[in-house]
């Protein structure tokens, strides 16, 4: 073989190796890039707590949380607003403080809570329930696993620490903690029905002018077939469409590809441009301002419901502060979590046009078959109380800042042989429905 041919072959080999190396670097980011991104996500903690599920919960000073990396929140200062209680020896107690950015006060609490009116559809004195699809009356409380090993000090918030292996499970650093290629199905985006990119739904919703919603979610631990699939129960508050779609989302999910395990976890999500470049899960990007020092977003919820056994629930209330315009989130009756600043959004800065509640799974059609990932408990809604997953006491916040039972509920369950929904009204639970299914079965190949 001539020297010219040998030189040419050597050039080809070198070029191929260079291309392979370049491709590897684009798929697997360098350790330096991963470390830099981790430093952006993981703030210096005041205290760290090791959770029994393997999570590390960092107690981060409230003013150092990821939200304040956002351009609109960068120039903040802490202003203490104290109420003085004089005790012996002239000791006083400061019971509250606020944050300030760009001369705007960041409220530690909302200026108004939604009003509650007695709903004629809910009979709190009802003693008997004969409906097949009525949720059981006795529900048990939940907690987060990390609570068993400690709690975060006042003035800090708990943040689930992001690990290197979490980052490497993502397709890229940019996509970590984000929904990829989602075409949200809803009444305002029905034309997207054929391009859901593997996302399948069973949900109920209503259209109008809304300023929030409240609902109680039955908690389960559904089986997920492959790590990049997930299963969840959540609410959606939305307005806009396509690239101007604004959403606020919250609920529970099982998502091995994001968290590295199959635990049931609380989550939030938001976007202001149809999931293209804005928003993320939990505190994985700038945006949501957390004020609570007891709930770790993305943290494991325990325990979860059992078939024909104890049922566990989580109540979520999200509403728009009539004065400041921010969207606040609360768990249960008194666990105020924090808020999405109104300035994060375009059309949602005013009001919502659609509110929806239900289940969602990702179906990757592994080996050419529909996924076996469960939605809810994995039982169809027709199985009713004790077996199927439910959402009850569904309410919306109207223009008078009042919680009311929604009217004109619609449902959407395009793959009803895989996942279904049954809506009803119950004198103990108001507007409520059961949803879910096992995925692949003889009628869902």
From TrEMBL:
Keywords associated with the record: Signal
Neprosin PEP catalytic domain boundaries: 191-445
Annotated signal peptide: 1-23
Superkingdom of the source species: Eukaryota
Transmembrane segments annotated in the record for this chain: none
Protein name as it appears in the record: Neprosin PEP catalytic domain-containing protein
